[in-house]
DNA sequence: CAGTATCCACTATGATACTG
DNA sequence: CAGTATCATAGTGGATACTG
């Protein structure tokens, strides 16, 4: 997960693109391999148990799932509820704050869905030229 | 930069949160350390030369700046123009496609600015508890 | 069930030096 | 000026085995 950086370099008036800025911090947090997938799953389905999540995000290791969930929980985006039964049962769900993040995430998703073809096309053009030039 | 993954596992109807989905690809691309900063700078100022960019994104190495710019260029988000003068002059600018990405990026930025305090507060609470529990 | 603890590989990033 | 090449390293992600 993102290393926790000091905000020493930050400017007083937030420049969205300066180092140490909120959006960079956000990207550092959700730009990892599993965060948005977890956020997405929880957003779709509501409360979800650890193993359920692991199965839905097939491919994730227990270590990474735990790590991702802990980070999201730490940031107040996900709530973790432990039911003291045996065997223990733990449920994860989006917090209200986590819910609000779905909006900008959706904007990003929509952009990518709408422009994916263009990006892919650009890649092919670029790679073709690269092939010519070595 | 993101490893280029096969899309073999993708479902036919795009699930925004499934692996290999457009939004994941997008996050893989712009979730790195410099892409959104470069996008942001170019969005703010229009055409910009290599060294100008390097100075504005103070802290970036030439290698990373080149790598980031190449990736963005490959994806059709940034245009690279070489002026065959001596010494050579290269200008970078957002393509129309790159411009459209500023909208969802702005949504993300606004979210982070608006909710940063909550996230930070949540972290402190979490870390305080972690201290208690070991 | 829901983790934790280890060890390992790869990747991303960076410092530095060199070049057309 | 605008890179490229090389070397070094930290951090990310993963496989596996163990535990309350």
Structure, described:
Two copies of one chain form a homodimer. With 134 residues, chain A is mainly alpha-helical. Chain A contains five helices and three strands, in the order ααβααββα. Chain A has helices at residues 22-30, 35-45, 50-56, 62-74, 96-133, and strands at residues 48-49, 78-83, 89-94. The first copy, chain A, has a three-stranded antiparallel β-sheet. In chain A, helix 2 (35-45) crosses helix 5. Chain A is elongated, with a radius of gyration of 19 Å. Chain A starts with 21 loop residues before the first helix and ends with a helix. Mean pLDDT of chain A is 84; it is low at 1-14. At the A-B interface, helix 1, helix 2 and helix 5 of A face helix 1, helix 2 and helix 5 of B. The first copy, chain A, binds a DNA duplex (20 and 20 nucleotides) through residues 1, 3, 32-34, 49-51, 54, 60-67, 82, 86-90.
In round numbers, the mean pLDDT of chain A is 84
Q: What level of helicity do the residues of chain A show?
A: 55-70%
Query: Helical region count of chain A?
Result: 5
- Percentage of residues in DSSP E strands of chain A: 5-15%
Taking all Cα atoms into account, the compactness measure Rg of chain A is: 19 Å
Oligomer status: homodimer
What strand line-up does the widest sheet of chain A have? 1-3-2
Q: What general outline of chain A do the C-alpha atoms trace?
A: elongated
> What is the N-to-C order of secondary-structure elements of chain A (H for helix, E for strand)?
HHEHHEEH
Secondary-structure class of chain A: mainly alpha
How far the N terminus sits from the C terminus of chain A, by CA atoms, comes to: 36 Å
Biggest interface: A-B, 48 and 48 residues
Organism (chains A, B): Kutzneria viridogrisea
Domain HTH hxlR-type (chains A, B): 21-120
Pfam family, one (chains A, B): HxlR
InterPro entries (chains A, B): HTH_HxlR, WH-like_DNA-bd_sf, WH_DNA-bd_sf
């Amino acid at each position: 997960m993102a290393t926790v950086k000091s905000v020493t370099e930050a400017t007083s008036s937030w420049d969205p693109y300066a180092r140490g800025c909120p959006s960079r911090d956000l990207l550092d947090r959700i730009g990892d391999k599993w965060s948005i997938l977890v956020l997405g799953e929880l957003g779709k389905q509501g409360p979800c148990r650890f193993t359920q999540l692991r199965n839905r995000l097939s491919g994730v290791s227990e270590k990474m799932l735990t790590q991702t969930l802990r980070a999201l929980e730490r940031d107040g985006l996900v709530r973790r509820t432990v039911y003291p039964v045996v065997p223990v049962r733990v449920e994860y769900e989006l917090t209200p704050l986590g819910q609000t993040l779905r909006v900008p995430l959706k904007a990003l998703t929509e952009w990518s869905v709408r422009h994916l073809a263009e990006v892919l096309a650009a890649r092919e053009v670029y790679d073709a030229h690269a092939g010519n030039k070595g």
